[in-house]
Design a protein that fits this description.
Layout: H1 3-24, H2 27-65, H3 70-85, H4 96-120, H5 124-128, H6 130-165, H7 169-176, H8 189-192
Helix pairs in contact: 2-3, 2-6, 3-4
């Protein structure tokens, strides 16, 4: 065997050994699970965008019947502007602070929409309006889709994070910089973990 042939064979053996090593230590699984997290995240963002797209028509319809509910209408518009101006980049998935900010602005929009629906209950003519009912139905469907998309994202992140923290794949994670990814949390976690006070005397 010539020197060049020996070198070429050595390089091929080294490449096979590296491929086997990377495969055995979970490197390929990290690629698969990271892509699954990104795909699940894209669906979350897609559904939040769908909701944001419905809001201007909803606000205009309510305004037609309840224009004097200015504060509520403006709070929805402001919350939508904050949510849509938030830069959703792939880095959000690896930055707990940015992820929390994303969750916060979406939560504020959810709260503003809830207050808008409470206002709508006071106006029978608005509730009877066909376009309002259609928008309300689309919004409810979108909220359901958001819930499903978030659940899928949470499951994908859980699988990924388990691999990041498990031995021996945690060694690969450290070597290639795979960190635990943030997930959705319940904003009022402290409040809902406190048992409500029930007083039948009132």
């Amino acid at each position: 065997m010539t020197l060049n042939g020996f070198a070429r064979t050595s390089q091929m053996l080294l490449a096979f050994a590296m491929a086997a090593l990377l495969s055995g230590c979970g490197y390929n699984q990290f690629q698969t699970k990271d892509e699954a997290v990104k795909a699940a995240w894209s669906e979350v963002v897609n559904q939040y965008q769908r909701r944001a797209d419905l809001i201007p028509n909803l606000v205009n319809t309510v305004k037609g019947y309840a224009s004097h509910e200015k504060e509520t209408l403006e709070s929805v518009t402001r919350a939508r502007a904050a949510a849509t101006s938030f830069q959703i980049t792939p880095e959000v998935l690896n930055n707990p602070e940015a992820f929390q900010k994303f969750q916060q602005v979406q939560g504020e929009l959810s709260g503003a929409l809830s207050r808008l629906m409470v206002v709508a209950e006071k106006y029978p003519d608005l509730k009877a309006d066909a376009s309002f009912r259609d928008l309300q139905s689309q919004l409810e469907g979108t909220e359901n889709r958001i819930t499903v998309a978030r659940q899928r994202y949470i499951a994908s992140v859980q699988e990924y994070n388990v691999q990041v923290r498990s031995f021996p794949t945690n060694l690969t994670a450290m070597m290639f910089g795979y960190d635990v990814k943030p997930s959705f949390t319940v904003e009022n976690e402290k409040a809902i973990s406190t048992a409500p006070t029930v007083d039948f005397g009132k």
